[in-house]
Amino acid sequence: MTTTTEKVTPKAPPKPVLQLGDRIFAGSAKGAGILILVVLAGVAAFLILQAMPAIVASPADLPGGKTLVAYIGPLVFGTILAALIALVLATPLAVAIALFITHYAPRRLAQGLGYLIDLLAAVPSIVYGLWGVAVLAPATIGVSTWLNTYLGWIPFFAGPVSVTGRTMLVVGVTLAVMILPIITAVAREVFLQTPKLHEEAALALGATRWEMIRMAVLPFGRSGIISGSMLGLGRALGETMAVAIILSASGAVTFNLISSDNPSTIAGNIALQFPDSTGLAVNTLIASGLVLFVITLLVNALARYIINRRREFSGAN
Fold first, then answer.
1. Which residues lie closer than 8 Å to 1 by C-beta, 6 or more apart?
2. Which residue spans traverse the membrane (predicted)?
3. Which of 153, 243, 281, 282 is 20 to 30 A off residue 48, Cα-Cα?
């Protein structure tokens, strides 16, 4: 008696039947994603079309008789400089605050401090600008004098010291306070998601609390810190009113942070010049806005690239 063995092909599992609510939610989510792309493409198209007359215009017709690169270049320099100062000042402080709230402070104090930090994000930027002009600028004159006296050999503090205090250093500190709650909120939520088994294992092996944070919490939250920092950097790059109020801009390209010769920023320059501009001057300002748009996209793309490189480390294993 012979037997034949037939190869049985496994059947594919049936597709789940989506309920009406699931289909509505999926369609709404897809529509929202498409809408974001359409709006982004529309903004880019508007900026390109409106900036084209300035791009093809003769330098003699542009504001100041300069080429478009010569006009926008100092603004790009000032925008990046102010944002980097804010990022360098805010990121370590935000990470330290997030670690204190999540791993050191008592629960009641941590909850109240978290609410207080979050409230900083609700303060209008014009209020920060007024605070920077009325409080921070006069208070930094003595600090700037000391920096110029003892650290004047560094280009950042070469001086002469501004008598009004309305300097790039004050702008950077103000922007750092503005982006502090953004970075802190993201870092705090990421630190709270650190697997408890990792923390308990480090403590069980004899690690101190700081060693546990350094070995378990910070590696797990590194991508979150980068994400929060890039969000804060995007806010600092596009900040308008605070910069326009505080900064006494002269259009110079300099790393000197405590003198009255300060480069302006793209957003601040647009806010100050747009009301009185007509014709080709408006197109020139829109062209500078297009450059800011591209810079912001590049910053976000770089952040996404860095985060994707660490996607394989989830901390859950």
1. none
2. 32-56, 68-101, 113-131, 137-157, 169-192, 212-233, 240-260, 280-303
3. 243
